Amino acid sequence: MRFALALAVLAGLTAGCGANCAEIAARRRALTERTAVAAGPHARVHLPFARANQLLAELVRDPALRMPLQVPPLGPVSAPELTAVARRVELRPAADGELRFAIELELDDADQPVAVLTAVTDVRPALERTADGSELVAGFGPDNLRSIELQLRDQDGRALVDAVARWLPPALRGSVPRAVLDLAARKLAAYLTDRAYDALRATLLRRLGEVTRLRIRLPALPIAATRVSSTPDALTVDLTTDLPVRGGLTIAPPASGDLVVQLSGSTAAELANWSIARGHLPQHYTRGLEPRADGDYAPHLDYLAEDRRRPVKIHVFQDRNGCSYFQVGLRFDLGLAGDRIEIAVHDRLVEAADASTAVAVGLWIKQLIQGAVDSSYRAAARTELAIGGRRFAARVLGAAVSGDDLAFTLGFAAAPGA
Questions:
Q1: In angstroms, what CA-CA distances link 12 with 17, 50, 168, 183, 358?
Q2: pLDDT tens for residues 84-108?
Q3: Coil vs helix vs strand at 63
Q4: How does strand 390-402 pair with strand 405-414?
Q5: Cα separation of 259 and 412, whole Å?
Q6: Using CA atoms, how far apart are residues 127 and 216, in angstroms rounded to an integer?
Q7: pTM for the complete prediction?
Q8: d(Cα 87, Cα 84) in Å, to the nearest integer?
C-alpha cells in the first residue's frame, strides 16, 4: 500500500506530460539504443570433470568396445590372441582453449589382463551454430592422439615377462632362460606400442572417439564468442554475447558436483529485453496489467551494479495514447520450489515518475521481474549434454543470486527416446 501511495503522490505532482514527452522519448532512446558491450564473460557453463566422466564411463561400459589382436611369434613363444578392451575415457585439465581426453585400453589374454595402453589427446572444441542455438563440440580421433604409453600391471616390470612365461608350452615352462623371456617380452612391448597401436588407431580408437564425442548445447543466448578453460576439477566455458551488457560475471563458479550456469545481472536484464524485442516475452501491457499487443505501456529492464541497494531498474514507457514514464528500483533473491522459480523482491522504490494518472505497479513489477528471471531460467535449462548418440537433458536443481550474478545448478538424466 505504501508503494502504491508513493506512486500516486508522484503521479499527482505531475498533472500532465506536456513538454515532458520529448524528454521521455530521449530517455527511452538512451536506454534502448545503447550499443556498448562490456568485456566478458557475460555467462558461464561450469562442468565438473567428475560428473562428465561419470557419464562417459557409463557409455564406455555399456557395452564395452573390444577388438582382437593377433600377436606375431615372439621367438620360441607362440602368443595367443589378445583382446583390446576400452575401459575408460576421461576428460582432464588442458591448456586454455583445449580439452584433454585420456583413453585407457586394457589388453587381455584368455586368462587375465596383460597390460594397459593409455593414449592422451588434446582437442580444440568447435562452436557449431544451428537454427536452434549453439553447441560446443569436442571429440578425439586417431589422428590427433598426442602420446601413447604402455603401462604394466606391476612395479618391477615383470608383467609382460610373466605373460610370456604363461604362453610357453607346458613342457618348456621353467626351462627357458630368463634372457629369452626378457627378449620375448621386449618384442611384445614393441608390438603393442607400434603395430598393434596402429591397428587400434584405425579401428577401436576411431569407434571410441565416435561413441564419446562430447556436445554441449550452450544456454539460449545470442553468443558472440566462447572461451574454454579448465581447472584441476572442472571444464569452464565462458560466453560473451552481443547484447549491450553493462558488466560481466564477478563471482567464481560455486562449489557444486553438478553443472552450473551463471549469468551476470546485466546479462539477465539484457536477455529479458532481447526476449521482449523478439516477442518471447510480452511487449506491451494495458494499464490494468494485462499483457496485450494493443497495450499502451512497454517495459525495459536495466541493471546498475554500482547501485548496491537497488541495482535492478525497471522502466515503463507509455508509447501509445499519450506519453508517461516511471522507473522502479529493487533487488531480488531467487529460490527453487520443485520446478518453479520463487522470487523475493526487496527495497522496491519508485525512483522517477512522469505521469498524468496513477498506475498501480505493485503486481506489474512482480510480473515483469518474474518474466525476466524466467527468461534466464529457460536459457540455462536449454543447456544439454550429448555424448556420442546419447543425449542427457537438463533439469534445474537450484537457483540463487550471488553478488551481481545469477546461478542455476543443473542435473542431467538420459533424455527420453535418446
A1: 12, 60, 103, 100, 7
A2: 999 999 999 999 999 999 889 999 9
A3: coil
A4: antiparallel
A5: 8
A6: 10
A7: 0.84
A8: 9
Q: Yes or no: say if 109 and 92 are a contact pair by the CB < 8 Å rule.
A: no
> Rounded to 5 degrees, what are φ and ψ at 288?
-90, 20
**Residue 21 contacts residue 230 (beta carbons within 8 Å):** no
Lookup: cell for 291 = 499483457
Write down the domain spans for the chain.
Answer: 2-42+243-381, 50-212
- Strand arrangement, sheet containing 324-337: 297-303, 312-318, 324-337, 340-354
- State the DSSP string of 146-182: EEEEEE-SSSSS-HHHHHHHHTS-TTTTTTS-HHHHH
Q: Which of 149, 396, 401, 25 is nearest to 250 (CA)?
A: 401
Identify whether the C-beta of residue 237 lies closer than 8 Å to the C-beta of residue 216: yes
User: Under DSSP, is residue 5 helix (H, G, I), strand (E, B) or coil?
Assistant: helix
Digit-coded pLDDT (tens) for 23-78: 999 999 999 999 999 998 999 999 999 999 998 888 888 788 899 999 998 887 88
Residues 6+ apart with CB under 8 A from 386: 214, 215, 217, 392
Angle at 317 between CA 316 and CA 321, to 5 degrees: 135
Contact predicate 329/313, CB 8 Å: yes
